[in-house]
């Protein structure tokens, strides 16, 4: 057992088996037994000397015990009972998978354990017998002469044929002598000898050293192997070229398992030039069968080398016919440049063997030539096209056909080249000022852009004072039905000589061609201009010899032939020769007066050609022209054709014939050609809209006739030989108003009517625009863009003076690039539309956005409210959890059209989303511990996809350029932001119940934003989602608070859900604008969200950051009740009374205690005791997993970076210059504006805007608890005692806080009446006579103290106080809004509603005069 353990330990230490005895070598005597044991952890391979033929004799192992497995150890026992000298050698143990390399015996072999055994013999001193063994080696190599002794004590001597001992041979008794770096001369007879006891024992060897000869690779001629069919006789040749003296073995190895008489080989030798021979080994297979398929190997061996080649032969069915064409490259479209070449290689396989042909694009067969190289073999075909040109482009076809089928393969070649331009049809000379066509042919691919230019040369051929014009009257088309030949035709008048240039450009290069354009007013370069009409005896004629000024001099001679001899013409009384010059020709004019028959002959004009080459010689070149003058006998004018009848009056009845054109013909002849003139009642007719002439005045066309057109129409043919006349009398009957006259009169009447209509239209339009401008002025929108920065009051909050902020034009987005889609939500006065904005994001062509707008019929107040929200968003900056501004369309704000483009959140508001998916909610609160366990429902959450489509928010530059605004300090600004949207998300048509809110369920300024998505594959809502939403809302509100922006209506319905589970706050900065609006009050004070309002907001209408924190607590309650209505089943009056008594809503079922504690902190009665939004972010963040919290923080980092960049660029941060909407500031006694008590300081620059002032209609509310209607007035709490069961849980009453005390309504009424009377006693009449500028008020209006009212009005109001009921009921509405009590006094009728500055109100000058 101990031995086995030892063996196991040794085996663990080594990977190879253990051999025993383990001593490197073992010496025994002949006849003694030999036992070797091998042990290992795997089956064992044992190596030992065996008979190697005649040279070594070994004994037979008597007993071999192979691989006995004992205790997971393999054991191999080898025994030779009676050893002989030949058993001397290497014995080894190895793993059964190890390949043993011959003669690689090493003591430290990593895989084999070796043992060398000597078997000593007294009679045989060498292991191998003396057989004169032949050894072969290669020059430069080494050889082992294996004379191994049977005993390690015996040292043999190696000697050569000369009995000289070899000293350079190394000896190892286990291997023999090793001779290295052999030379050919080392070929010899060698002897190993041992001398013992005076007797010599020797073993002889014959060594042959050869130079190494490398065999060439054999080649199989495989043409016959391409398609081997069953039943055919197959002959396959394998050839190799070898030296004649080389000894080799050349044969085939075939895959057949059995020897077959069908298969045979035969060798052929062919003597080649020099010392080589071509050897062919032919394999013959008769009657090929399916089993003959497989791999055939042709192999050639020599002493030192072996080379082989294999070929796989497939046997085919002789009945199968096919053609396969396989291109070398799968892409068969090739594009090359001109001058290069293209080559296509196609592999061909077919049976029967197909015939191959290549065809050009014009279907012409390609024949090998210098242009085309075609090489076809049994397996492939190659087409190479050299020197490519554009005309080589097209589809080339390879056609393969046999007797059974045809296959085609197409290649497309597109040769691109720079254009080559040629001007065609250029005339030597052109007549001046005539329209001329020029043709330019271009060879190009791709298609070129052809342009023309003409260099006008006033001093041609000099380029002095030349100018270039670029004509545009041209047409371009493909010429000659080729897509690579193009022709451009230019039409232009030629005024003077110059150079015409045609320029063609494509993507590669341009090419231009220029030609000279010569202008001549003669007959080309040189010629005689004769009379236009035939010459009659007695006529005066001129023969003008004109020569181009560019090629000829001004020297002319006139000659005639007299007896076949040229004679110069000399001037006479009837013959004058005059020379002059035009801009284009030198002229010599031959004038003949009163020509006679003798003047009819040939006239020759000779001119001299200008020597442009400055050649000086005895003779100058000349040119001549000939004119043959023919003289006719005179013939007086006569008529050849006429329809005029001198004796018959032609009556034309307009009623019957209508206004047809009347044609009078008067065709004449005569010599000379007579001139035709027309008369009516002997008055010459001229061409006009009624009369026009044809055929050189030989036909008169009268288009219409009137009564006064009756008369005598005569035609006169006039020549120097006399006048011939004919006429026609025409009478016109029943001619009425001419159609043109009727049309003219009608047109004037219609035009006058339309002018009246246009005048009325423009009058109405101007009045409407004036009215609209007045309304916009009243709404505070006249100075929308520049704002009124000089009027900003740092003591007022943002929402009190948002309209004073400037609008930066960098946000302006072109309206035509905004495509409105479906409606997402709407209120009474506004709508939210889904839209596509083209180019609003740099990274996207089209971005899905949401567009807020007011209805065009809406009161300007609501346009102002949306404008205020826009301005707040412009200056707010960016945040992940706020609906960010993308752009706006404000150009038509004067028409009450204002579009605010914001981020699109396709899942809609959280209130609707929670209601819609409430049934799938996963409650992750452990019912046993009441703690949050995120593993609950994890399997369901993992199986469903996320609400997000995994589109992360993208950041890019808005691609539209925004121009510098009136108040921006920088130039064009690019806003580096764009929301992540999913424009490809599937759209659905919402059913009516898909959107919970109706138009009347929220105030008119609210978005009522509904979702636009499908429910498939949405991740269910879980408790962690509610926490992450709460965390994000807190972060968004924290940002708004830091930017001094008040929300005023924070609720789940005003929080939107976007991709990636991101929530965004919307409709911020809007509520208070509407609460304080005058129109809002006049309409009954409108609905307000009382169930979300803090105690001080309900009681005193104080809206602050702390009231937003209260609303945030209600939002938390909405989240964790899955959108239940707050204070369920409780009326508004009852709710308010219970709140001041300390009641707070119970803990929601889906909220853990920590979340409910946060709600209670938000609902502290005293605003200053409520946590800040920063505290809320930290508290809720601690309830989230660290990675979730950091995820939403990191998503907001780019927004913060952009905000930082904007501030660093020097942009003014106006929001931080204003007062924060903090409760402490708003309710401070020194705070004399907006939500503050009345200030008694007589010289304050701001006047009280509290409801106690009789003239207050500004909508600004005071927190004073004792002023009339400064809060809701509810019934006594005693009346609600029966509902005391709902008062639990109560806040602790240990706090001494006036906010917790119930309101004594009767005491407050009395107190308020006393204060109001006291205020009236302090009224001081102080009219302020100054121009208020913009500052939220129209110009040129007086500003007065709000308390400046008529005494009678005050008395009347005091009487009304006694009569009126001060506990109006609260009107409940849908979606938990209520109507606030209406104000009692409305003394501002007719005053612009936009004037909401708390310091001033406006009255007319008339009222001021009366008070004065």
From TrEMBL:
<dbReference type="InterPro" id="IPR050122">
    <property type="entry name" value="RTK"/>
</dbReference>
<keyword id="KW-0812">Transmembrane</keyword>
<dbReference type="InterPro" id="IPR000719">
    <property type="entry name" value="Prot_kinase_dom"/>
</dbReference>
<dbReference type="InterPro" id="IPR036179">
    <property type="entry name" value="Ig-like_dom_sf"/>
</dbReference>
<dbReference type="InterPro" id="IPR017441">
    <property type="entry name" value="Protein_kinase_ATP_BS"/>
</dbReference>
<dbReference type="GO" id="GO:0005886">
    <property type="term" value="C:plasma membrane"/>
</dbReference>
<keyword id="KW-0460">Magnesium</keyword>
<dbReference type="InterPro" id="IPR001245">
    <property type="entry name" value="Ser-Thr/Tyr_kinase_cat_dom"/>
</dbReference>
<feature type="binding site">
    <location>
        <begin position="825"/>
        <end position="832"/>
    </location>
    <ligand>
        <name>ATP</name>
    </ligand>
</feature>
<dbReference type="InterPro" id="IPR013783">
    <property type="entry name" value="Ig-like_fold"/>
</dbReference>
<dbReference type="Pfam" id="PF07679">
    <property type="entry name" value="I-set"/>
</dbReference>
<feature type="site" description="Important for interaction with phosphotyrosine-binding proteins">
    <location>
        <position position="1192"/>
    </location>
</feature>
<keyword id="KW-0472">Membrane</keyword>
<keyword id="KW-0597">Phosphoprotein</keyword>
<keyword id="KW-0418">Kinase</keyword>
<keyword id="KW-0808">Transferase</keyword>
<dbReference type="InterPro" id="IPR003598">
    <property type="entry name" value="Ig_sub2"/>
</dbReference>
<feature type="binding site">
    <location>
        <position position="1054"/>
    </location>
    <ligand>
        <name>Mg(2+)</name>
    </ligand>
</feature>
<keyword id="KW-0393">Immunoglobulin domain</keyword>
<feature type="domain" description="Protein kinase">
    <location>
        <begin position="818"/>
        <end position="1184"/>
    </location>
</feature>
<feature type="transmembrane region" description="Helical">
    <location>
        <begin position="742"/>
        <end position="764"/>
    </location>
</feature>
<feature type="domain" description="Ig-like">
    <location>
        <begin position="218"/>
        <end position="314"/>
    </location>
</feature>
<keyword id="KW-1003">Cell membrane</keyword>
<feature type="binding site">
    <location>
        <position position="1053"/>
    </location>
    <ligand>
        <name>ATP</name>
    </ligand>
</feature>
<feature type="binding site">
    <location>
        <position position="852"/>
    </location>
    <ligand>
        <name>ATP</name>
    </ligand>
</feature>
<dbReference type="InterPro" id="IPR003599">
    <property type="entry name" value="Ig_sub"/>
</dbReference>
<feature type="binding site">
    <location>
        <position position="1067"/>
    </location>
    <ligand>
        <name>Mg(2+)</name>
    </ligand>
</feature>
<keyword id="KW-1015">Disulfide bond</keyword>
<feature type="active site" description="Proton acceptor">
    <location>
        <position position="1049"/>
    </location>
</feature>
<dbReference type="GO" id="GO:0046872">
    <property type="term" value="F:metal ion binding"/>
</dbReference>
<dbReference type="InterPro" id="IPR013098">
    <property type="entry name" value="Ig_I-set"/>
</dbReference>
<keyword id="KW-0479">Metal-binding</keyword>
<feature type="domain" description="Ig-like">
    <location>
        <begin position="535"/>
        <end position="622"/>
    </location>
</feature>
<feature type="domain" description="Ig-like">
    <location>
        <begin position="637"/>
        <end position="731"/>
    </location>
</feature>
<dbReference type="Pfam" id="PF07714">
    <property type="entry name" value="PK_Tyr_Ser-Thr"/>
</dbReference>
<keyword id="KW-1133">Transmembrane helix</keyword>
<dbReference type="InterPro" id="IPR007110">
    <property type="entry name" value="Ig-like_dom"/>
</dbReference>
<keyword id="KW-0675">Receptor</keyword>
<dbReference type="GO" id="GO:0007169">
    <property type="term" value="P:cell surface receptor protein tyrosine kinase signaling pathway"/>
</dbReference>
<dbReference type="InterPro" id="IPR001824">
    <property type="entry name" value="Tyr_kinase_rcpt_3_CS"/>
</dbReference>
<dbReference type="InterPro" id="IPR008266">
    <property type="entry name" value="Tyr_kinase_AS"/>
</dbReference>
<dbReference type="GO" id="GO:0043235">
    <property type="term" value="C:receptor complex"/>
</dbReference>
């Amino acid at each position: 057992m101990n031995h086995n353990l030892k063996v196991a330990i040794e085996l663990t230490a080594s990977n190879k088996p253990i051999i025993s005895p383990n001593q490197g070598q073992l010496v025994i005597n002949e006849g003694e037994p030999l036992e070797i044991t091998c042990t290992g952890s795997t089956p064992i391979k044992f190596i030992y000397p065996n008979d190697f033929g005649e040279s070594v004799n070994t004994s037979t192992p008597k007993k071999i015990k192979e691989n006995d497995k004992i205790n997971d150890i393999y054991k191999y026992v080898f025994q030779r009972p009676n050893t002989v000298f030949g058993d001397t050698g290497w014995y080894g143990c190895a793993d059964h998978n190890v390949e043993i390399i011959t003669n690689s015996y090493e003591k430290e072999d990593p895989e084999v354990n070796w043992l060398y055994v000597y078997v000593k013999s007294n009679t045989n001193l060498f292991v191998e017998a003396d057989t004169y063994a032949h050894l072969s080696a290669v020059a430069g190599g080494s050889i082992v002469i294996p004379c191994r002794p049977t005993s390690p004590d015996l040292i043999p001597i190696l000697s050569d044929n000369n009995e000289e001992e070899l000293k350079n041979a190394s000896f190892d008794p286990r291997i023999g002598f090793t001779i290295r770096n052999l030379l050919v001369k080392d070929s010899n007879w060698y002897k190993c000898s041992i001398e013992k006891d005076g007797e010599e024992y020797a073993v002889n060897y014959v060594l042959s050293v050869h130079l190494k000869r490398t065999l060439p690779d054999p080649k199989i001629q495989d043409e016959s192997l391409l398609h081997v069919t069953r039943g055919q006789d197959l002959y396959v040749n394998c050839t190799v070229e070898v030296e004649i003296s080389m000894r080799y073995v050349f044969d085939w190895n075939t895959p057949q398992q059995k020897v077959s008489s069908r298969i045979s080989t035969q060798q052929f030798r062919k003597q080649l030039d020099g010392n080589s021979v071509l050897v062919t080994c032919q394999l013959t297979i008769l009657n090929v069968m399916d089993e003959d398929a497989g791999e055939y190997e042709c192999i050639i061996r020599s002493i030192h080398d072996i080379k082989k080649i294999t070929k796989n032969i497939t046997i085919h069915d002789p009945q199968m016919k096919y053609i396969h064409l396989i291109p070398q490259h799968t892409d068969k479209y090739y594009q090359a440049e001109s001058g290069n070449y293209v080559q296509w290689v196609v592999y061909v396989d077919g049976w029967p063997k197909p015939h191959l042909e290549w065809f050009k694009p014009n279907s012409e067969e390609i024949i090998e030539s210098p242009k085309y190289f075609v090489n076809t073999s049994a397996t492939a075909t190659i087409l190479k096209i050299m020197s490519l040109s554009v005309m080589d482009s097209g589809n080339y076809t390879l056609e393969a056909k046999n007797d059974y089928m045809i296959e085609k393969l197409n290649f497309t070649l597109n040769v691109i080249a720079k254009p080559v331009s040629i001007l065609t049809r250029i005339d030597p000379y052109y007549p001046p000022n005539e329209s001329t066509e020029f043709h330019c042919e271009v060879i190009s691919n791709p298609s070129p852009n052809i342009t023309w230019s003409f260099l006008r040369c006033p001093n041609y051929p000099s380029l002095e004072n030349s100018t270039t014009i670029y004509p545009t009257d041209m047409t371009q088309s493909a010429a000659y039905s080729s897509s690579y030949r193009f022709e451009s035709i230019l039409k232009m008048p030629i005024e003077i000589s110059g150079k015409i240039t045609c320029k063609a450009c494509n993507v590669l290069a341009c090419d231009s061609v220029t030609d000279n354009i010569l202008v001549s007013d003669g007959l080309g370069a040189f010629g005689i201009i004769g009379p236009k009409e035939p010459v009659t005896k007695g006529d005066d004629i001129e023969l003008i010899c004109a020569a181009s000024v560019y090629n000829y001099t001004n020297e002319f001679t006139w000659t005639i032939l007299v007896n076949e001899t040229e004679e110069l013409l000399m001037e006479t009384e009837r013959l004058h020769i005059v020379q002059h010059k035009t801009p284009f020709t030198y002229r010599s004019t031959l004038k003949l007066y009163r020509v006679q028959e003798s003047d009819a002959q040939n006239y020759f004009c000779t001119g001299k050609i200008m020597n442009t080459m400055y050649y000086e010689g005895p003779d100058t070149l000349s040119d001549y022209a000939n004119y043959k003058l023919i003289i006719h006998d005179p013939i007086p004018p006569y008529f050849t054709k006429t329809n005029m009848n001198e004796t018959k009056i032609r009556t034309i009845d307009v009623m019957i014939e209508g206004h047809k054109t009347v044609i009078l013909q008067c065709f004449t002849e005569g010599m000379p050609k007579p001139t035709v003139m027309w008369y009516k009642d002997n008055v010459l007719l001229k061409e006009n809209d009624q009369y026009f002439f044809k055929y050189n005045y030989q036909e008169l066309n009268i288009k219409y006739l009137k009564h006064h057109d009756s008369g005598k129409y005569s035609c006169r043919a006039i020549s120097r030989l006399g006048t011939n006349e004919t006429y026609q009398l025409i009478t016109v009957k029943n001619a009425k108003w001419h159609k043109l006259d009727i049309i003219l009169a009608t047109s004037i009447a219609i035009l006058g009517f339309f002018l009246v209509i246009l005048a009325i239209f423009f009058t109405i339009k101007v009045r409407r625009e004036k009215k609209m401008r007045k309304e916009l002025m009243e709404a505070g929108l006249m100075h929308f863009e520049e704002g009124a920065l000089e009027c900003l009051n740092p003591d007022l909050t943002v929402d009190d003076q948002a309209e004073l902020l400037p609008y930066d034009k960098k946000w302006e987005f072109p309206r035509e690039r905004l495509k409105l889609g479906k409606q997402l939500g709407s209120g009474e006065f506004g709508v939210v539309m889904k839209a596509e904005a083209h180019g609003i994001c740099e990274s996207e062509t089209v971005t899905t956005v949401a567009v807020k707008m007011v209805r065009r019929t809406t009161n300007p107040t609501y346009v102002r409210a949306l404008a205020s929200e826009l301005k707040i968003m412009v200056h707010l900056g960016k945040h992940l959890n706020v609906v960010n501004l993308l752009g706006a369309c404000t150009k038509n704000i004067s028409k009450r059209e204002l579009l605010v483009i914001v981020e699109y959140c396709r899942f809609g508001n959280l209130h609707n989303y929670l209601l819609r998916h409430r049934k799938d909610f996963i409650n992750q609160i452990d019912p046993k511990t009441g703690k949050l366990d995120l593993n609950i429902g994890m399997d369901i959450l993992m199986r469903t996809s996320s609400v997000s489509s995994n589109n992360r928010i993208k950041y890019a530059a808005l691609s539209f350029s925004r121009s510098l605004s009136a108040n921006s300090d920088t130039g064009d600004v690019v806003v580096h932001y764009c929301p992540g949207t999913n424009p490809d998300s599937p759209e659905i048509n919402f059913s009516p119940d898909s959107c919970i809110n109706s138009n009347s369920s929220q105030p008119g300024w609210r978005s009522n934003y509904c979702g636009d998505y499908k429910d498939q594959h949405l991740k269910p809502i879980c408790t962690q989602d509610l926490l992450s939403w709460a965390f994000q809302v807190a972060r968004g509100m924290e940002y708004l608070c830091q930017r001094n922006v008040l929300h005023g209506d924070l609720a789940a319905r005003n929080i939107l859900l976007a991709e990636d589970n991101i929530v965004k706050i919307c409709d911020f900065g809007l509520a208070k604008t509407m609460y304080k609006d005058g129109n809002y009050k006049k309409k009954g004070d409108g609905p307000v969200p009382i169930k979300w309002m803090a105690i001080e907001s309900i009681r005193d209408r104080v809206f602050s950051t702390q009231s937003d924190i209260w609303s945030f607590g209600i939002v938390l309650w909405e989240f964790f009740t899955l959108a239940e209505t707050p204070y369920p089943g409780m009326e508004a009056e009852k709710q308010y009374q219970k709140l001041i008594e300390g009641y707070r809503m119970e803990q929601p079922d889906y909220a853990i205690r920590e979340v409910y504690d946060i709600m209670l902190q938000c609902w502290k009665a005293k605003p200053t005791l409520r946590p800040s939004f920063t505290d809320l972010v930290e508290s809720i963040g601690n309830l989230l997993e660290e990675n979730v919290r950091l995820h939403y923080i990191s998503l907001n980092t780019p927004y913060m970076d952009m905000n930082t960049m904007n501030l660093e660029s020097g942009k003014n941060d106006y929001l931080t210059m204003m007062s924060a909407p903090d409760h402490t500031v708003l309710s401070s006694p020194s705070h004399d504006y907006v939500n503050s008590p009345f200030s008694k300081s007589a010289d304050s620059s701001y006047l009280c805007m509290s409801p106690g002032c009789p003239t207050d209609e500004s909508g600004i509310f005071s927190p004073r608890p004792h002023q009339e209607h400064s809060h809701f007035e509810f019934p006594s709490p005693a009346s609600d005692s029966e509902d005391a069961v709902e008062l639990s849980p109560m806040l602790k009453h240990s706090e001494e806080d006036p906010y917790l005390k119930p309101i004594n309504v009767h005491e407050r009424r009395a107190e308020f009446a006393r204060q109001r009377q006291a205020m009236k006693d302090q009224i001081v009449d102080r009219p302020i006579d100054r121009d208020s500028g913009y500052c939220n008020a129209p110009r040129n209006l007086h500003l007065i103290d709000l308390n400046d009212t008529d005494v009678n009005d005050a008395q009347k109001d005091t009487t009304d106080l006694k009569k009126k009921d001060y506990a109006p009921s609260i009107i409940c509405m849908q979606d938990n809004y209520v109507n606030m009590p209406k104000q009692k006094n409305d003394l501002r009728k007719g005053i612009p509603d936009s004037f909401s500055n708390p310091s001033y109100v406006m009255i007319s000058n008339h009222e001021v005069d009366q008070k004065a």
